[in-house]
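Lesson 9: reading folded outputs for more than one chain in a single document. The general rule is that every protein is listed as its sequence immediately followed by its structure tokens, and records are never interleaved. Here is the first one.
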Amino acid sequence: MKAAEARVLLTGASGGIGQAIVAALRDAGAAVLGVGRAASSQLPEGTGWVSADLTTADGLAAVNRAAADWRANVVVHAAGVPSFGALAGTSPAQMQAVLQANLLAPMLLTQALLAQLRRLPKAQVVFVGSALGRIGLPGFSVYGASKAGLHGFAEALRRELADTPVRVQILAPRSTRTGFNGAAVEAYNHATGTAMDTPETVATALLQLIDS
């Protein structure tokens, strides 16, 4: 879909990658409706906003209504939470929170939006995954599991919707320089020589994916 035709519902719009995605989409001529718990003052003027917690039923319902009223034809799932550390030191509550935010919330939101997307001449659903969903690294077992699940969901849904107007895509960035990474992850990346991209690099790749 060309950017000028796109009305993009973007979750995680106030995050480091999210803000770069908003800027890239707006510069390319797309309309953007951001979703998050709190709007960022750095979002470009004219960007729509829905305040919602996607890990709650009320939040999902609010975004579903807003997307329908706004006539969104592209959904980008970029919201997520980090997790780094040995499994032995990860609490059950933390594991549940990561899987809820990174996997279950985008699954439930996609399910809620699917009926309205299928009524459109063409629509796209894009999941922002991670290279860690394909490559298991120590310290990222919980986060990697959430992104691996997202990969599997996207691939299966793409085949499930192959005969509909809805295209399903996934983007899997490697490590990115944003505040999403805590000090321990920064130290890990430095010690292992992990290459890192700018959020603008990821945003450009996403824009190309939507257009391709």
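And here is the second record, again sequence then tokens.
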Amino acid sequence: MHFSRRILATILFVVSVTAVTAVFWWRSANVGPVQRGADLALSQGCLGCHGGLGESPALPRPLTDLDDVERETLREWILDGMPQRVRQDAELRGDLEAAAIRMPAWRGRLSEAQVDDLIAYLRALAAA
């Protein structure tokens, strides 16, 4: 009788651990790019400057108003801290460089997939 309870307890433990592991795997495997982008923005500290919806007074426009911005421009902002067109315009570049807070360049610190996820998140905010 004592042996049977041990076996039953072991089986229940193994089943429980397997079930919990399966649920965690299923949830992580079924997260889309928008949620991954939101999680990444939070974990990297982006929302510290940009705020939840990117409506910080330090920004020229809120993240919810980026629906007209091209995907490649968003990619340049993320990777290089400013797009090429701004870098080439002395007045715009000067304004950004004089700002108290500047967008950091994430090139070499984020993978292409992570940048794609951030862009998906920004697009979702703009579409909301």
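What the second record shows: The chain has a mean pLDDT of 84.
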